[in-house]
Amino acid sequence: MKCYFCRRPLTYFFTKNGYRLFRCSMCGLVQTHLGKPYTQFLKDFYTTGYFTGDDGAGAYTNYAKDKPNIVKNMGVILERIKRIKPTGTLLDAGCAYGYFVELALTNGFDAYGFDPSAFAVSQVPTVLHKRIAQHAVSEVSYKKQSFDVISMLDVFEHLADPVVDLERLHKLLKDDGIIIIATGDTDSLAAKVLKRRWTFYVPPQHLFFFNKKTITQTLDKAGFAPILFFRIGKWLSLSYMLHLAQTTGESRVAAVFEKIIDALHLGSLPLYLPMGDNMVVIARKT
């Protein structure tokens, strides 16, 4: 494999979930060798189990039950958006069940969304059906220059060709539009300490792993200029936290605790994790 940016040969990093990860010694970008057609992967992987606790997916325990925590995390990002764009048209790329679309609507935005998962879109409330579509970034067909804001929350690391996808979204933004990306930071202390057990290192769904330098480079290639970087902590249910520790964190102890917590019906207990590994960038169209 060659680096997505530098085109230099990559160095083997480690293998996880049966997939090999490689790292560029020049720019630090980490990428997963998927080894299968991405379009078919989207259809096969992001199904019911991804959102409902399939251990093989290494994703959510129960996306619907975790809605209060997910929305609380999204609210922090929306407040930052409103400081720059108090209102306007908003498109949420990779919107899942439509929670951010719903939140943006209640905050005065004319909000829309899309997601490649047929299952996720099937869970969208009826009131949002006309606002949310099922397709990938490569299939967007919205009118050019029709959005003030585009959001990609915990989505960017899932893309197989992030520069090309950003270029597509660039065309949908108005001339003074902004894009918001929330993803993991490979330069964070958590990533460096946990190494392969870091929760963002979860192939095959996460294909690229960025730091501030490489995400800036990605944005620049697609016609965006970062105007703000910040980090956020996250609210997670105790059940979800233990699920992540067990699946992506590869902890055997977490599996035991998860059974105990379920037996005591404490899984919904919310916990705040200020890990500092969640990087958010707001960039303006150039």
TrEMBL record:
Q: Name one GO molecular function term.
A: methyltransferase activity
Q: Does the record bear Membrane in its keywords? A: no
One Pfam annotation reads Methyltransf_23
Biological process terms from the Gene Ontology for this record are:
methylation
Q: Which UniProt keywords apply?
A: Methyltransferase, Transferase
Q: Which InterPro entries match?
A: SAM-dependent_MTases_sf
Query: Key word Transcription regulation present in the record?
Result: no
Report the domain of life of the source organism.
Bacteria
What name goes with this protein? Answer: Methyltransferase type 12
Q: What is the organism field in this record? A: Candidatus Gottesmanbacteria bacterium GW2011_GWB1_44_11c
